[in-house]
Structure prediction request, 363 residues.
Amino acid sequence: MKNYIPVILSLLGYSYIVIAAHCGCKNLRPCYEEMLNSLLDDNEDPCVENVAIGGSTIIVFLQALKQFCGHAIEVHEENATFEGRTLYEVVLNTSNEVERQSKPVIVIEAGQDAGSGPVMLALFIIEQIVACEEYSEMMEKVTWVILPCTNPDGQEYIRCEMEPWQKNRTPLKNKLTFGVDISRNFDDSWSICPASDNIFSSNYRGPSAASENETQFISNILAKYKQDLKAYVSIRRDGHSILYPFASKVVTRTDLEKSQSTAEEIAGKINQRAGNIQWFLNSSIFDMNGEARCGHSVDFAYNKLGIIYSYEMRVFPESTTRIMSKFQTFPKGYESSLRNGYFIGIRELYNIVASEKLRRASY
Prediction:
């Protein structure tokens, strides 16, 4: 297996344990330390966030974790895209089946709109929770279900063709063109918004609600864990914000207050860490877009499944960075600061969910 782990840079002169601390861990979990010492060569980077994120990276990383830390991670590979790429369901949990049934569930999915940034962040979250002993409680108190790459066909197309793309790669009209925007394909308000039925449009919503393998996969996972599901986060590219419902309309409702106030808390925690670089925003999805966007997974989770803590999280502001880089030099560690800030936001969401569970148990 070691020959297939991506090589990024030489780190000669450092031990694996010292290097691993640079991935964010104060103390390594023994199984993760064994994995690094068994699989890494001297010139290989142990931090998944420093590796070019492609299909092979995901496969190698998850298989290595399953081999060495199998007590803490399950990797399900039953679902696939039209082009045959695996849609992974990763479950992080150190409890037995009986204990697991009484624990809240947090679902994180990444990459609906293609691109590597959200996928990298999802893998980083897996790395931190599994590798770092200081985050042991995060697996003891909560079951994490992470879908690290929910549009692998679109992601690989961008990597190979190097052109803007946000759809999947479903062939349309006898392969006259390709792709449905899966972020507009969920079975919630799908037909309400003004939408393009032009199959050549980058915003094409599909022939019907939930018509795509990727949409069905995400919807089925959310439904599978509905009984204990307390939070859902959809990580997407090119932004710097956490967004609460709704995407399809402007609504002021008292039942949204909890979702809104939690988004404010999460944004506040991220700004404590990375706000000096760029202010992390929070608003409704509609307000951020400035228009209605139907068929959204967050609206689906909130309306159809009753998940109060349902959010879209936009990460790594590509467009802003591209413009600003023409006028200024970004500080060293810019991307790392953003990434660590996002993880702090995920930890804050975990703290809120775990605290609610504790309060209910004390009644």
Summary: The CA atoms of residues 104 and 286 lie 28 Å apart. The radius of gyration is 20 Å. The mean pLDDT is 87.
